[in-house]
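re: ur msg from earlier - yeah i can do the zinc ion complex, just paste it... oh wait u already did. ok heres what im feeding in:
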Amino acid sequence: MACDVDTGAVFKYPVHCFGCDQAFYFTLRKIAEAKKLACPVCGSDINLTDEAYGFVVTSVKETIALIDQSSRDLQRTSIAPP
Ligand SMILES: [Zn+2]
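and the outut:
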């Protein structure tokens, strides 16, 4: 059975919490899909739509796009052998 792990659900990216001034790791999928996250320590809302997180969200989405693209390439390769 081929490995079908979703890289975006495994890889994590640090997101800064302004409530407790620390960075916490969330999975790429979660960052890309959620509009806000809850800090695991202080419980503050981490509002990903805030422009302070613009760079984080953009780079995470770019990474997700690359992951999706390469997994599509892999599937195509396995379905249609050379
Ligand atoms: Zn916090």
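cool cool. The chain has three helices and four strands. ping me if u need the other ligands too
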